[in-house]
From TrEMBL:
Record InterPro entries: RCC1/BLIP-II, RCC1_domain-containing, Reg_chr_condens
Location of region: Disordered: 60-90, 283-302
Name of the molecule in the record: RCC1 domain containing 1
RCC repeats: 212-263, 264-352, 353-398
Pro residues bias locations: 77-87
Alphabetized SUPFAM superfamilies for the sequence: RCC1/BLIP-II
Gene3D superfamilies given in the database record: Regulator of chromosome condensation 1/beta-lactamase-inhibitor protein II (2.130.10.30)
Organism: Balaenoptera musculus (Blue whale)
Length: 398
C-alpha cells in the first residue's frame, strides 16, 4: 500500500449555483481556487461534478498522525496518491449547488443532471452494498427512485483477478453492469468485456477493458464513437483503429472522446465545435476575415470546412468532426497520464504533474484567468506559479 498523504482540492469555472464548496453563488471562477471542505472533521475523498451541482464524498479524518489520501476530482489538487471510496460503512455524500442535501454510509457517488447515484452500505451486517438512484432535487430525502443490492461477493476479483477491478461509478463494483442516467437505470454488460472503466457522454459510452482495449457504443452523429462513421452503435464495438495499442485511460465529453495509452500518447475524436479536440475550429478563429465557406472530407474521413481569409489569403482549414482517433501531441512532447472531458472542453495531466486544458472556455472552466476558448492545449499556469503538481493518480472531473 502506498504511503498516504494529503492533497488539496481546487475548483474553477461556472459556479452560478454554488457548485464548489464554500464558493458562494452567482460566480464565475476563472482561475483555480481551493475548495473548503464541509466541516473541520471531514475529508473529501471523491468528487463528481455535474453542470448545476456537485457531489462530494467525504469521510471522517483519521486521528492525529494518520494522513488521508484524497482521490482528486472535479478540479483536483496536487496529491501523490488517490484513494478508493471509503471502505466499511463508508462516509457521507454532500451536495452543493442547485441540488443540496447529505446522506451517510456512502462509498461512492456519481452526479448527472438527470440522476444522482450513490453506493451505500446495506441495512445490516452482510447485507452488501446498495445502489440507489435519486432525483437530484430530492435533497436525498424520502425514497430513492430505484435501488438494488450489489452483493459483497460481486465486489471481489473477477475472472482476470486484480486486472478486472472496476473503476468508479457509473461502472458498478461488480464490473458486470453500469448505471445510466436514463431508464433503464441498471444496464448489464457482457461478461466477456471484463470492464475496468466506463465513461458516459451525452449520447455515447466508452469502456476500457482489462486488456487495455477500448469499446464504444450509443449515438455517433458527431463521430464520437471513433469508428469512422456518424452511425449509432447499439452494442459495445471494439475501436479497430486502436488495436495493438494498450490504453490506460478513457474519457467521454458531451460529444467527443479521448483515451491515453500506457506510453502516454493521447488519442482524441468526435465533435470539435469549440476546439475540444485541439484541432483548428471556426468558432475559435479570428473574426473579420470570413467571406465564403466550403466543406469536404479528408482522406481519414474527418469533416473539414475551409474558410477564405487566412493570413496569406488562402482558405483556412477547420475540422468540425473527427470520426477516427487522432494522435494529439502536447507541448514539449509531454506524456499524458490522466484525462477528463467536460461537455465541450478537455483536460489532461502529464507525467510531470502539469495540467493542460483546451476547448470551450466561456465560463472560465479552462482555468486560464479568462473566458477564452482554445483549440490547442494550454498549460494552467496557476499550479506552475504556486509550484504545485498533479500526481499520476490525479482525477479531473468537470
Amino acid at each position: 500500500m502506498a504511503e498516504e498523504r494529503r492533497g488539496a482540492w481546487f475548483g474553477f469555472g461556472f459556479c452560478g449555483f454554488g457548485q464548489a464548496l464554500g464558493s458562494g453563488r452567482g460566480r464565475q471562477v476563472h482561475s483555480p481556487e481551493p475548495l473548503r471542505a464541509p466541516g473541520a472533521g471531514l475529508d473529501v475523498c471523491r468528487v463528481s461534478a455535474s453542470w448545476s451541482y456537485t457531489a462530494f464524498v467525504t469521510r471522517e479524518r483519521p486521528p492525529s498522525g494518520a494522513i488521508p489520501t484524497p482521490a482528486l476530482g472535479a478540479c483536483p489538487a496536487p496529491s501523490p496518491a488517490s484513494s478508493p471510496p471509503p471502505a466499511g460503512g463508508g462516509g457521507q455524500v454532500e451536495l452543493s449547488g442547485f441540488a443540496v442535501g447529505a446522506v451517510g454510509g456512502c462509498r461512492d457517488a456519481w452526479a448527472s443532471e438527470e440522476l444522482l447515484v450513490v453506493l451505500r452500505a446495506g441495512p445490516g451486517p452482510g447485507a452488501g452494498t446498495e445502489l440507489q438512484a435519486w432525483a437530484p432535487g430530492s435533497a436525498l430525502r424520502g425514497e430513492p427512485l430505484w435501488a438494488q443490492t450489489v452483493p459483497e461477493a460481486e465486489r471481489e476479483d473477477g475472472p482476470g483477478g486484480d486486472e478486472t477491478q472496476a473503476g468508479p461509478l457509473p461502472l458498478l463494483p461488480c464490473a458486470r453492469a453500469y448505471v445510466s442516467p436514463r431508464p433503464p437505470f441498471y444496464r448489464p454488460l457482457a461478461p466477456t468485456l471484463r470492464a475496468r472503466r466506463l465513461e458516459l457522454g451525452a449520447e455515447h459510452a466508452l469502456l476500457l477493458d482489462a486488456a487495455g482495449q477500448v469499446f464504444s457504443w450509443g449515438g455517433g452523429r458527431h463521430g464520437q464513437l471513433g469508428h469512422g462513421t456518424l452511425e449509432a452503435e447499439p452494442e459495445p464495438r471494439l475501436l479497430q483503429a486502436l488495436q495493438g495499442l494498450t490504453m490506460a485511460e478513457v474519457a467521454a465529453g458531451g460529444w467527443h472522446s479521448l483515451c491515453v495509452s500506457e506510453a502516454g500518447d493521447i488519442y482524441i475524436w468526435g465533435w470539435n465545435e469549440s476546439g475540444q479536440l485541439a484541432l483548428p475550429t471556426k468558432s475559435v478563429a479570428e473574426d473579420g476575415k470570413t467571406t465564403s465557406e466550403a466543406s469536404g472530407l479528408n482522406e481519414d474521413g474527418s469533416e473539414v470546412k475551409r474558410v477564405a481569409g487566412g493570413e496569406d489569403g488562402a482558405p483556412t482549414p477547420f475540422i468540425a468532426v473527427q470520426p477516427f482517433p487522432a494522435l494529439l501531441d502536447l507541448p514539449l512532447g509531454s506524456d499524458a497520464v490522466k484525462a477528463s472531458c467536460g461537455s465541450r472542453h478537455t483536460a489532461v495531466v502529464t507525467r510531470t504533474g502539469e495540467l493542460y486544458t483546451w476547448g470551450w472556455g466561456k465560463y472560465g472552466q479552462l482555468g486560464h484567468k479568462d473566458t477564452t476558448s482554445l483549440d490547442r492545449p494550454c498549460r494552467v499556469k496557476y499550479f506552475v506559479d504556486k509550484q504545485l503538481q498533479f500526481y499520476l493518480s490525479a482525477q479531473i472531473l468537470f
